[in-house]
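Notes, p. 3: input format for complexes.
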Amino acid sequence: MTQTLAAPLAPFADALPVPRRLVAAEQNGRLSVPIRVGAHRFHRDLPESVIWGYDGTVPGPTIEAERGQPVTVQWRNELDGALPVVVTTAPVAADTSSVPVQCVPGLSGGVPDQNAAALAGHTVVHLHGGLTPASYDGWAENLFAPGQDAVFHYPMGQRAALLWYHDHVMGVTRFGVYAGLAGLWIIRDQRERQLGLPEGPPFEVPLLIQDRNFGLDDSGRLTGQLVHKTDPEVMEAFPPFTVVNGKVWPLLEVQPATYRFRVLNGSNARTYRLVLLRDGEPELHRITQIGTDHGLLRTPARVPPDGLVLASAERADLLVDFSGLEPGSEFTLLNTAAAPFDGAPFPAANARGAADPGRMLPYPHVMGFRVVEGPATRREIPGELATDYRPPSPDALASAPRRTIALVERELEGEPNMLTMRELVIAGDDHTGPVVTVTDDEQTTRYRAAAAHFEDATTFFPVLDRYEIWQLINLTDDTHPIHVHLDPFQILSRRPIRYQIPDHGIEDLAITAAVTLDRDPDDKLGHTIDDNERGLKDTVRVNPNEIAEIAVRFTTYSGRYMYHCHILEHEDRDMMRPFVTMPAELMPFMA
Ligand SMILES: [Cu+2]
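Output follows (591 residues plus copper (II) ion):
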């Protein structure tokens, strides 16, 4: 199914909006942000949409903070009325002309979900990437209702980075974020200033990329009604319209200069692989990546030859060189990643043919750039960026506790499969129940499941200031972006696996699987760590047929935190678990 769909909205018609800046230092570090119903126009030719937004806007204001200068935010829940999103599951996955229902606007015969329609605005705010005390981290069950406030203290004792704040309500994060509850948060520090990087407008531009769908009226015209639509086969929403800073397929006029783009994928589920095209040909050489989730890399990196992959919640700090270009030169940023994303390659040279409605990529456009008159200013890119971190030493890792997590897909009767996790522990010799075996060369390790659901007892108690190795075993067909709250981590390895799961091998808790560290002959993935992933990350893509290992060290705050898949539809349906960071001195007293 490769027919192309006529875009019902003109691309590159709206100017790229830049969210309002809220500079904490200008308000003595004390901010008050209302969470409100608002009216927002996603495209020049769309009617206004009702949204939920921080400050009533989509995206919320970009909060700018300084390293070492704490910020207190009074989050004021002033939401009023029902969720402004129609949530539905269409009765069939494709319409009569075989177009997947996810690629088209409207409800596709789906009935509005009454439970979602009854959601009335309980919220909780999480600062993603924040080194934040547990009380202010936005635990998914600590909600505040309309009319209530939450005053959160953010110490900002962390390096410069692009963070984001968003809704994190247990079970319904996918609807709150989709309704508009997301905004950027930039931390700045002296190291970045020493490097002379662009700071603020016009040359530093945040790009928050999301996807949205809208309703249709009786005459088939697009309404502004936000629609979260899934289908009987796909439990994630992959809406057709890419939105950057709140506009569908916007255009940015640029001077012939070096721009710094702070890019975040804030979509519920969609992974993007971004390619910059000029006259239909990729010009990825114009892009240099200098930072990732938790800020600067040690050295600048090229984006991978296929394009810059960003799964939900991943960030990239990019310098893009438009210098030396004639006014009128035009570029498009395209997405070549079909959905659901499975890591499969797609050559950048083929990007202009990336449209693939059959795989839920009806419109690859992300945004456009047009060069206008201006002084040509090209910045030299320093060869050394961050100096404050290194890969963990073999010594530090030799004694590191290892934790094992399987990412699994559980088949359910009469509803889409459920993507969940199983925390695994080594099975004792006397264990006779189901096991996961992991065979690496001659050695086989047997694991049993210790926890599956969010509410199961906590099994992870990391000790502060010690490295741990978390090994994530993907036993599903999709890439999962796994996010750990609190401190950042480094990716140690990705290794190919083969595995077998018997019928009914994945039950409510128990799991039976045989995993071998070996490449499947049909496996097309590289299972490599890209240069732009060799930084401090808080979200790691775990691809199909792969074990990814990360080294994480929690440093500062003790308490109860969460880790989860950042595909919000997965997180909401149990792909989320707690962990509790502990000071070493308390461990002898833990029963
Ligand atoms: Cu997932």
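The pocket of copper (II) ion is lined by residues 419, 480, 565, 567, 570, 575 (CB under 6 Å).
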